[in-house]
Request: fold
Amino acid sequence: MNAQKRKQLILARLEKTGDVEIKPLATELQTSEITIRRDLNQLAGDGRLYRTHGGAMKVNPLEGPHNFVNKSAIHSAAKDSIARRAAAEIRDGDIIFLDCGSTVSRICPFIRNKTIKVITNSLPILYELQNSRVSINLIGGEFDQERQAVHGKMAEFHIRKYRASKAFVGADGISPKGLFANGEKEASMTLALAGQSGFTYLLCDAGKIDRETYWRFAETTLADALITDYDLTKLKYLKKAGLRLIAAP
Amino acid sequence: MNAQKRKQLILARLEKTGDVEIKPLATELQTSEITIRRDLNQLAGDGRLYRTHGGAMKVNPLEGPHNFVNKSAIHSAAKDSIARRAAAEIRDGDIIFLDCGSTVSRICPFIRNKTIKVITNSLPILYELQNSRVSINLIGGEFDQERQAVHGKMAEFHIRKYRASKAFVGADGISPKGLFANGEKEASMTLALAGQSGFTYLLCDAGKIDRETYWRFAETTLADALITDYDLTKLKYLKKAGLRLIAAP
DNA sequence: ATCAATTTGATCGTTTTTGATTATTTGTGA
DNA sequence: TCACAAATAATCAAAAACGATCAAATTGAT
Reply:
């Protein structure tokens, strides 16, 4: 066990629990307390954590609704089946937009072997498609560390230079009143993507249905189809609005 | 068992476990520890892995936990001192371009706590600056998996929309005939960056001096300054050409 | 077969990392 | 406020890893 590995494990543990203590770390990593203390001091010097008496704390405990890691942990079964169903809509040769939502990024494992082009502003999606057959166009602009995605005017401008056959986007809520987002940034990206694609799929798990978060950014008709695990018979208002409803089992 | 085979096995093992140690490798591959050390150093020089005390770790941080710590990993001392010297040129408030060379990316550890804006097309650089005070603008375009960077017409277009006070670029060779690159893609990015910056720093370790690789892409005057560990008295032709020569001890 | 170039291994001095010891500081509760 | 326990910083020593150097083994070309 070398210093690098140890520090990585410490940071990983910190990421999970928010704080660490020296004694447990020393026993767990099978080294002395003073070595752990040295590691923590070095990491603190790099600004990777806050040093406390007897341990350390996360430097920036960002506990928002936008924390991607947290988000992707919940609703996994439903989201996976939605993503699988969405991937089935993709044909070889397609050029597709992928939004930066947690549900949307689940599509990646199912499209690695398709010969398509993906245009995205999401770094997690880029990671997931590494070393696959998919060719990737990364949207440029201001990088948002919290959301792990690119946003801003330049990003919207970039999108408008391209045109895709299909777009897969997410939303934080959908109701008869329209589509809802948790932030302006995501909303404007979603709008831009939908505007430049021939067909827009909206991916929403049951938890998002009939939910109205604070930012209403579009009519329900922004999307051409909805893929969800929710009971479709309760969504007739969307069918009337012209959306194709696709069930994810 | 030849060197090629050994390196392949090392990389394969690294891919599986994320890190390797020298002693187990030496016994497993039935060779001496110093040979393994040499292999690891060569692989590290090629950028295929990060060298650590007693072993090595995977270079591609994208697949691991997003908290890689390579600060004290063993690097080429020359490249590190060049990078440190380059970082000293950066002031709070600067807007800087960072090229995607291996030397340039080493600047990152030294600028994490500066309040600057970095515009780059390199994913490793983006990764190194995660959770730092640096604000990042990611250049968009076609993503090149091999180089872990963005290239192409859209990328050049993106660059031309911005203007930076300083650019830090690399080259694979420099001689009185000009600057040399190993690929057209890198070369055109370097040209675009230099064209949009007020002052262009060229970072070259001694191994690149008087080297002429196959692609000559610019005059030496593309750069305004050269930062190198090479003997400056032997580079008078650059001084005559108007370049500021900066020694990295 | 011969010679040069490359690769590998061994040795030695140096550097880095780690752990132990001791004095000092910090936090806690009476 | 004071005393006591825990954590820390500082110093030193041992162990491991490292680079440099040189010699032996291997390889490749003539």
Remarks:
- Chain B has a mean pLDDT of 87.
- Chain B touches chain A at residues 19, 21, 50, 52-55, 57, 60, 62-65, 67-73, 109, 112-113, 123, 126, 130-133, 135-143, 145, 150, 154-155, 158, 161 (CB under 8 Å).
